[in-house]
User: What shape does this take?
Amino acid sequence: MTLPHAAVETPVFMPVGTVASVKAVPQHLLEELGARIILGNTYHLYLRPGHELIRRMGGLHRFMSWNRAILTDSGGFQVFSLNELRKVTEDGVQFRSHLDGGAHFFSPEHSMDVQIALGSDIAMAFDECTEYPADYERARKSLDLTLRWAERSKRHFDAHKHERPWNQDRAQGAGHRAQVPEISADAMPSLFGIVQGGMYADLRREAAERLVEMDFPGYAIGGLSVGEPRELTREIIAETLPFLPKDKPRYVMGVGYPDEIVEYAEMGVDMMDCVLPTRAARHGLIFTSEGRLNIKNRRFAEDQGPLDPECSCMVCQRYSRAYLRHLMVAQEPLAAVLNTLHNLAFYLGTMQRLRDRLDAGARTTPSPV
Assistant: This one.
């Protein structure tokens, strides 16, 4: 994908940077890990520090000193998760902040305005994330609303996407240190549509076909990882992908474990994201070529080996399991930093190896005569 701030090879795993920060990892180390695109969260950034403040700072890239690509979600999933604090209508969603209880309103148009102010490379259409379980009638009603919101999102985004903050004076504030590349006047962000439909294959197909008719530059499969069995997640992805264009990015939101992201990529998924590698790291759950391990386990107390003998990341090259266990037991903040660096390196390295295999297969496949 050629995006305004970076070229991104797929299939790609995108680290989640909810509040303009991938937890415990500074931006220069994300670059060293090879991350080309990360996520920002529209709902959280809207509440704090506020999208208009970020616009005045020159956009999210300059604000957080990140010179590669950013995808922002629509805020729909976070509003969905508020449950008792929200009210959904045709116009949008009235909700109360989880921070202070203040009243707010998100419509498709407002979500687009916030994401344009943030200056993301890829924005997401505003959708309603259908809960699990949901009966057919509920999923049908939710899907119809999401498709109407998709049309409104695209219409508003296309009319206002030129208002992005990228071309503001680079001398403003401390943002000059960000080294954000200059963006040409014709470089515009993209808006992806989101396929909903609950766990019903016919609704998923209808959603995909109707979104394709709207001609988005990319498509996401949303409404997964909301409590359904992982086998059902896999089934919905497999049943939906054939109805999304192969020549446009196909993004599955909120997945998954390392073996799952490889499987989904081999099925034809181009983009994935998940908080799992960072969240698990903070609790001592480490992903390795030998499987998962809990570094807090007593058996690692005198283990002088690296987290993963097959890993060449900056953590495995320098620190022992014994030391990393000690940091966790001592509740030392450095534990979260080092565990997260390794887990992200494992995820990003897994995707790089898969891309290398795909490239090698392409080079060795005979051309048709």
